[in-house]
Write the structure tokens for this entry.
Amino acid sequence: MTAPTRSFGDVTIDWLCESGHSFQATGQTDSRSCPQCSKRSYVVTLYQCEVHGRMEIMLGYDAEQDDVRVTRWRLPSRGWVTSEEKLRCPRCRRALRRAPRDPLAPIGRKIKTRTTD
Ligand SMILES: [Zn+2]
Ligand SMILES: [Zn+2]
């Protein structure tokens, strides 16, 4: 396990605003304003339900000096939870797990819940 050496402010990541606009910007621990509607925006990443696939989760950060950590998680349009274990799929209540990917890479919002065919 090697920790990423890039710092949070050096990478371009995905953000999602309260109205659902997405955009990319560098990481910062404070919330940003959406460039389209000026509402508060949060870093967004992907979690997954083993049944319903990937979903976007907003993250809230706290930073002490250079130690940046996630302290809040939220499904868009729902309340914040203070522990990753409390993240539940809105459809089946299963626990969500972080989707296996680079947490600092942009998600590009191309990923939709996979449909079985
Ligand atoms: Zn917006
Ligand atoms: Zn589910």
